[in-house]
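Notebook entry, structure prediction.
Reason for the run: the old model in the group folder had no record of what sequence produced it. Starting over properly, with the input documented here first.
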Amino acid sequence: MNEENKRTSADNGSYDTTTNTTASANPTPVTTYTYESRMNTSDLRASYEKELGMHMDMLKPSMGGSKLSKRNSRNSARTMLASFLIGAVVIGGFSYMADKNNLFSGSGQPVQSTGSVVSNDANDNAGLSTASLSTSDGIAAIYEEASPAVVKIETYAEPVRSNSMMDDPAFRQFFGGGGQQEEQQQTDEQSSGNLELMGSGTGFFFENDGYILTNEHVIADAEELQVSVQGYDEPLTAQVLGSSYELDLAVLKVESPDGKEFHSLTLGSSDGTQIGDWVIAIGNPYGFDQTLTMGVLSAKERPITIADEQGNHEYEHLLQTDASINPGNSGGPLLNESGEVIGINTAVNSEAQGIGFAIPTSTITEVLDQLKANSL
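New structure, fully documented this time:
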């Protein structure tokens, strides 16, 4: 029969031990150890020395004679094996405690890991600090702050008359027409101001007294500009103060109906940006108002060529981003992770995915005063 005796002391964090004693002439105790993580290093060492001393005392009688019996040899071997196992457990426990308590790092405080991060701190050898757009809360906060300053711009112009044979005077002479009455009716319709919606784009307030930045191609050839602003039920009529075809920039001005200031965005520094920085675009792509897209700054100083009605339009020093840019985003802000404008979204590669372009603020700020004064 085996008699089992258990000693547990989990409250103080020592070992749990189980000792089995067999009913034989020379009983050999075999002790099993279960490591408790709550033990400290001093407890581990004391327990190890105690158990090792007990087994060394048991070895002395068996080593006293010149000849050892086979039974004593087996007992000695078992005792040595038990001592080896005890040492392995204790050494493993020391290693675990040293790692847990950070004993070999030169600091008594445990090191806590961080996520994927970026830092510009020269004193931080690891080069790690938390990025500000690592959570959805940061993105939502930037959007909530910036979106009231982003506006929708709709352009209106007279409809283009078709050049049909009925409009040819020679055709009218030989085949008849509406005569003078019809011609007078067409003239009255043209002078009545019946304008049609020709297109739409995006802009944003950069000053709270009504100054708006957008692309020149958004407002080109428009006879009237209507600007939809958050908080106003009716669109506001905008005036073009100045524009530049070469730079594809334009400044508009609207008046506040209630005398209140408009929300505006701060123009940041595009020179201070780095490839890989988070960027956010807000605009009205395909008429979906106040759409937010997000990506990274893919490249800087990009030159591109766009073919338009006036020929090939050369752009230089553009920012490239993989934030989704679509028709209707033109003129909208490209924001950094602090909510500052670093560019104006202006073009997209229609044959690719995730290749959009923005005019950097380094270009904008050089000519902004001239655009406002229409002196460029």
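Summary: The longest helix spans residues 70-100.
The old model has been moved to the deprecated folder.
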